[in-house]
């Protein structure tokens, strides 16, 4: 059912072209599908993806001004998970594999994917064998002309790319939450700082000494892990393990500082198919907002942009070569260069779709005066303002 296409590995791969299943832009989102679907394009049963990060202080690992990578975990949609799914692909030479296929990814990992015990190589082998081999879209059968270990390269490249779009240290520091030997913080403050940037709740974990030591960012995926769209979502399963107050965020002793590379091509905004036009959305879905390469919140029922709370469910109705939108508030239209959804709208605007983004008058770029935070809502404009954004459709 799926065509094949060629793509270059991201993040510095230069050794070869790899063939992988192309997944339709209308492919279901993991954890939302109710019918059978090609599991090369639907991550199943592990459709709830966690990008997990460490803050290690004893011993300290990684730069003193950055969290480090723990891994990418395919949980079931209820918090349970499989592990170590294919012993025949439990590779024991990750360093050599990446040196040949993606040397810049390996170089990044040597700074930002660190272990506080044993060797980095053994840690990478563990993460791949335990979690990577359980990702259905990375099965060798999902590749045309499969070459051994190329799926492991995709796993590490994608995990690094996700991490680069999640600068936890900077997000916390922007809210005044910085490592300290004396200060303590509340769970609500930490969660609010991260949610304001990520758009959804983040799982915040502490060790037995109430020391902040791990973060879990949650995603569903449209398409494959290799090339699909990672869509931030709410956590499932066990919640944060930190106490409500008295949380310590200790400095890393003797650590070096660095300037983390932030991905400019966020997985949340990655296309799931080829370029050009796409089939117009139809039925129920969310309108997610992507700005500066990162998904931040969504459009709510009045047509405004919101980065907290629950996304509104929109109904997309095909109209000619495009589609119209409506919410619980009424029809949606561009009025006075602004998106609005209201019972007072008599004629809905016909939007287009480029296969990934909602477009209006030939452009996928919309605007706002600022990125909203907290309970603030931002008006979405079609005319230039200081913040540019794009709208992606998430079918339900």
From TrEMBL:
Has UniProt tagged this entry with the keyword Oxidoreductase?
A: no
Q: Name one GO molecular function term.
A: ribonuclease T2 activity
Query: Which PROSITE patterns does the protein's record reference?
Result: RNASE_T2_1, RNASE_T2_2
UniProt keywords, alphabetically = Cytoplasm, Disulfide bond, Endonuclease, Glycoprotein, Hydrolase, Lyase, Nuclease, Signal, Vacuole
Q: Where is the composition biased (Low complexity)?
A: 253-271
GO cellular component terms given for this protein: extracellular region; vacuolar lumen
Q: Which residues form a coiled coil?
A: none
Cleaved signal peptide residues: 1-18
The organism's place on the tree of life at top rank: Eukaryota
Q: What class of enzyme is it?
A: lyase
**Does the keyword section mention Chaperone?**
no
What this protein is called in its record is Ribonuclease T2-like
What's the source species for this entry? Echria macrotheca
């Amino acid at each position: 059912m799926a065509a094949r296409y060629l793509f270059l590995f991201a993040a510095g791969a230069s050794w070869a072209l790899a063939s992988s299943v192309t997944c339709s832009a209308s492919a279901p989102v993991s954890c939302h599908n109710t019918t059978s679907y090609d599991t090369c394009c639907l991550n199943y049963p592990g459709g709830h993806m966690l990008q997990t990060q460490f803050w290690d202080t004893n011993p300290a690992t990684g730069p003193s001004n950055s969290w480090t990578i723990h891994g990418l975990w395919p949980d079931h949609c209820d918090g349970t998970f499989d592990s170590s799914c294919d012993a025949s692909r439990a590779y024991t030479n990750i360093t050599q594999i990446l040196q040949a296929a993606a040397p810049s990814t390996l170089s990044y990992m040597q700074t930002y994917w660190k272990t506080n015990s044993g060797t980095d190589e053994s840690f990478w082998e563990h993460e791949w064998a335990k979690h990577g081999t359980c990702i259905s879209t990375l099965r060798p059968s999902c590749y045309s002309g499969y070459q051994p270990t190329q799926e492991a390269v995709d796993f590490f490249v994608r995990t690094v790319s996700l991490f680069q779009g999640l600068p936890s240290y900077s997000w916390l520091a922007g809210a005044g939450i910085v490592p300290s030997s004396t200060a303590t913080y509340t769970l609500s403050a930490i969660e609010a700082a991260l949610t304001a940037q990520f758009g959804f709740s983040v799982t915040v974990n502490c060790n037995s000494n109430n020391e902040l030591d791990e973060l879990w960012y949650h995603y569903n995926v449209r398409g494959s892990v290799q090339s699909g769209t990672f869509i931030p979502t709410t956590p499932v399963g066990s919640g944060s393990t930190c106490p409500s107050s008295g949380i310590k965020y200790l400095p890393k002793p003797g650590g070096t500082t660095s300037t983390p590379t932030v991905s400019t091509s966020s997985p949340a905004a990655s296309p799931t198919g080829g370029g050009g036009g796409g089939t117009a959305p139809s039925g129920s879905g969310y309108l997610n907002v992507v700005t500066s390469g990162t998904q931040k919140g969504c459009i709510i029922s009045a047509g405004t942009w919101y980065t907290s709370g629950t996304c509104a469910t929109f109904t997309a109705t095909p109209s000619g070569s495009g589609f119209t939108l409506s919410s619980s508030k009424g029809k949606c239209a561009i009025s006075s260069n602004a998106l609005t959804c209201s019972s007072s709208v008599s004629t809905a605007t016909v939007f287009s779709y480029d296969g990934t983004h909602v477009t209006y008058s030939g452009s996928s770029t919309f605007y706002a005066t600022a990125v909203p935070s907290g309970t603030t809502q931002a008006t979405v404009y079609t005319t230039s303002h200081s913040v540019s954004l794009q709208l992606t459709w998430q079918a339900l």
